[in-house]
Amino acid sequence: MVRNTQVSLCGIKLKNPVMPASGVYGFGGEYRDFYDPNILGAVVLKGTTARPRFGNPTPRVAECTSGMLNSVGLQNPGIDAVISQELPRLREFYHGPVIANISGFSVEEYASCCGKIDGLVDIIEVNISCPNVERGGMGFGTDPELAAEVTRAAKGATAKTPVFVKLSPNVADITEIGIACQEAGADGLTLINTLLGMRIDIRTKTPVLANKIGGFSGSAIFPVALRMVYEVSRVVHIPVIGVGGISKAEDVIEMMMAGATAVQVGSENLRDPMACYRIIEKLPNLMEKLNIENLVDIINIAE
Ligand SMILES: Cc1cc2nc3c(=O)[nH]c(=O)nc-3n(C[C@H](O)[C@H](O)[C@H](O)COP(=O)(O)O)c2cc1C
């Protein structure tokens, strides 16, 4: 029997629910030597800001057991270069859905970037959860009123492209933020971004990251992400993209049962550049084993 892996996000059809998470896949070209990106459900672009950013000082990544820390700090060429150079370059070899990831340091900056890229991509993911910048970023994602304000501004600046808001796990109650974004007009939610973490070099007695604190990601955070997707999916009616610690096809099924319509694979791509390929290839076999005919049938079925 043919297994149907197709899902849809706000009317946008994805051939399968698997896409790389923002920040681990650049602007789409980096993995071309490994596999054809056209096998992906969608491509998610690196976090983009109004002006180009060099990011934080190095070292800005550190290995951990079953995960990693990063404090990259939104290195990117800026929204104008993404629109004039990165997007056209990506379209030369990739023909599927594209999700832009937008960050800002003020509500106006979010609105301006969203307005510029409206209609040029399939989904705009508004990142209100970056832990690696001093101002803005996560500050917007930890207060329901600010989260709603950014969402309203992004929606007000866009007319064509659905807006998903990417939530931070570094809050007491993520459902509160999810509901606030939904009420402010979000078309969907992506969760989770990284958890705050730290390492110390015991020989030098200094923090490993130049920025001291960074975002923790990778397979260790999967149960946290799953719990949050489960909690949020039970209280909102807009689609949820699940992200955090996904490293194998089984995780995709589990995340969808918790409520995700699609999933993003982050750090696992840095450990194994073939991760998305491997997961997508395995999905139909796993569906057969689990007696799943249509992947959409399992979304949110966990009790
Ligand atoms: C090196 C690195 C850079 C990241 N950059 C971004 C970014 O620019 N925008 C964003 O929304 N999330 C960013 N993230 C967070 C990921 O998209 C994802 O939410 C998080 O890593 C959890 O997923 P994972 O455990 O599969 O890595 C970044 C993560 C890593 C590891």
Describe the structure.
The protein is of the alpha/beta class. It has a single domain (7-298), classed as TIM Barrel (Alpha-Beta Barrel). Helix content is 30%, strand content 19%. The chain has 8 helices and 16 strands. The protein has helices spanning 79-93, 107-117, 144-156, 174-183, 222-233, 249-258, 268-271, 275-289; strands at residues 7-9, 12-14, 18-20, 43-44, 61-64, 67-70, 98-102, 123-127, 163-166, 188-191, 195-198, 200-201, 206-207, 213-217, 240-243, 262-265. The strands form 4 sheets. The chain has an 8-stranded parallel β-sheet. Strands 5-6-14-11 form a 4-stranded antiparallel β-sheet, with no helix packed on it. A two-stranded antiparallel sheet has the order 1-2. Strand 15 (240-243), helix 6 (249-258) and strand 16 (262-265) form a beta-alpha-beta unit. Helix 3 runs parallel beside helix 4 and helix 5 (222-233) runs parallel beside helix 6. The protein is globular. The mean pLDDT is 96. The structure holds flavin mononucleotide. Flavin mononucleotide is lined by residues 21-24, 46-47, 70, 72, 74, 101, 127, 130, 166, 193-194, 217-218, 221, 243-246, 265-268.
